[in-house]
Design brief:
- The protein has a five-stranded antiparallel sheet with strand order 7-6-5-8-9. Strands 1, 2, 3 and 4 form a four-stranded mixed sheet that branches. It has a three-stranded mixed sheet with strand order 10-11-12, sandwiched between helices.
- The radius of gyration is 37 Å and the shape is elongated.
- It is α+β, with helices and mostly antiparallel strands.
- Helix 2 packs antiparallel against helix 4, helix 5 runs antiparallel to helix 8 and helix 9 runs antiparallel to helix 11.
- 41% of the residues lie in helices and 25% in strands.
- The chain folds into four domains: 133 residues, N Utilization Substance Protein A, Chain:P, domain 4, CATH 3.30.1480; 62 residues, Beta Barrel (OB fold (Dihydrolipoamide Acetyltransferase, E2P)); 76 residues, GMP Synthetase, Chain A, domain 3; 62 residues, DNA polymerase, domain 1, CATH 1.10.150.
- This is Transcription termination/antitermination protein NusA.
- Participates in both transcription termination and antitermination.
Length: 420
């Protein structure tokens, strides 16, 4: 019975090898280490044992090496054998020679077999965790697919094709993501953690890398290296801007990425929960690049401060809202894409001489508040007074009380002028 258990464990490990892609040499090494570990616990050392394993056939041989000593000098039966006992094996043996005989693991008793089972199981688990960590560490930045197994408040547990666990935290999900158990989800491997030999694979659907990989899948020219993705800026689930470049004048990088009637980009848009994706032709000319990044707004002029990485953009009044975009997404993404802080200003042909630039109110209004107003194109007092109150609150990201205080200060300025 005991022998069958030992062989059964070898067979089980052989099956594990096929499932987990453990190479033959590693498998034999783990088996041998497990047997040696148990022998060392039984006898204090395994140095005088040879363990020979053939996992393909389920064969196991254990050979013990002992030194022949005089009968009255026998001290350790594990490493020594008496001359009388040795000559029962071969009558020509002499003191000082080595005797090698086969021993059978099942003869060590049931406790040894249980110990072996525990040791082998522990080593298998360690191998599995190590293999999982190494496999996914190489996949960082790649798209993987998993089936939704469990949905929690802060994260979703997915299972890959080999039933390994993957985690998709709430913070790495697109805000409009909604998944059901059993549904397949695509995401990129964001990072792999390995605390206390307990690997955790963290996925992301908000990373710009996901959009990059999806474009590589959908656009052969990117995968072939004919088109290069220079940079990506994303506000997940809302909008994204992608700067692309081609070194072949015959290839239109924007057209290639969008595809005929949007055929290539539509699938990506659906995957990203209808995220609006702008494909932009990259140029090293930063002024032109900023103009393209602020599309669909039409820019009058751009003034760069390269040291501070700031750009002052002048637009016609009707273009300001387009440049800023819904929720300020357009200007925010343009800044992310270009690496420049972009300030938007209205281009006013006929400046009202009675109007006053906001900078002149810095003794009454905080400088950061003025900067917020200028970002949405309100450069003068009359620009602010002409703007909708709710627009000032939402687009300039100001508190209601702050906006009301600003309006009162500016109205008072013009009231005082009219009285005088």
């Amino acid at each position: 019975m005991a022998k069958k258990e030992v062989i059964s464990m070898i067979d089980t490990f052989s099956e594990f090898k096929e499932l987990k892609n453990i190479d033959r040499m590693t498998m034999i090494s783990v088996l041998e280490d497990s047997f040696r570990n148990v022998i060392a616990k039984l006898f204090g050392s395994n140095d005088n044992y040879d363990v020979i394993i053939n996992p393909d056939k389920g064969d196991l041989e254990i050979w013990r090496n002992r030194t022949i000593v005089e009968d009255d000098e026998l001290e350790d039966e594990n490493t020594q054998i008496s001359l009388t006992a040795a000559r029962k094996i071969d009558e020509d043996f002499e003191v000082g020679e080595d005797v090698t005989d086969e021993v059978f693991f099942e003869d060590f008793g049931r406790r040894a077999i249980l110990n072996l089972r525990q040791t082998l199981t522990s080593k298998i688990l360690e191998l599995q965790k190590e293999g999982l960590y190494n496999r996914y560490k190489e996949k960082i930045g790649e798209i993987v697919s998993g089936e939704v197994y469990q949905i929690w408040k802060k994260e979703i547990l997915l299972l890959d094709d080999e039933k390994e666990e993957l985690l998709l935290p709430k913070t790495e999900q697109i805000p409009s993501d909604f998944f059901r158990k059993g549904e397949h989800v695509r995401a990129v491997v964001e990072r792999v953690e390995n605390k206390n030999n307990n690997p955790k694979i963290i996925l992301s659907r908000t990373s710009p890398v996901l959009l990059e990989r999806l474009l590589e899948i959908e656009v052969p020219e990117i995968n072939d290296g004919l088109i290069t993705i220079k940079n990506i800026a994303r506000i997940p689930g809302e909008r994204a801007k992608v700067a692309v470049e081609s070194y072949d004048d015959r290839i239109d990088p924007v057209g290639a990425c969008v595809g005929m009637k949007g055929s290539r980009i539509h699938g990506i848009v659906r995957e990203l929960r209808n995220e609006n994706i702008d494909i932009i032709n990259y140029t090293p000319n930063m002024s032109l690049f900023i103009q393209r990044a602020l599309s669909p707004a039409k820019i009058t002029s751009v003034k760069l401060n390269e040291e501070e990485k700031r750009a002052e953009v002048l637009l016609r009044p009707e273009e300001v809202s387009l440049a800023i975009g819904k929720g300020g997404f357009n200007i925010k993404l343009a800044s992310m894409l270009t690496g420049y802080t972009i300030d938007v200003y209205r281009d006013i042909d006929d400046f009202d001489e009675e109007d006053i630039y906001l900078d002149e109110f810095r003794d009454e209004i905080d400088g950061w508040v003025i900067d917020q107003l200028k970002k949405i194109g309100c450069v003068t007092a009359k620009n602010v007074l002409a703007a909708d109150r709710d627009k000032l609150i939402q687009e300039a990201d100001l508190e209601e009380d702050t906006v009301d205080e600003i309006l009162n200060i500016l109205r008072a300025e013009f009231d005082d002028e009219s009285k005088s």
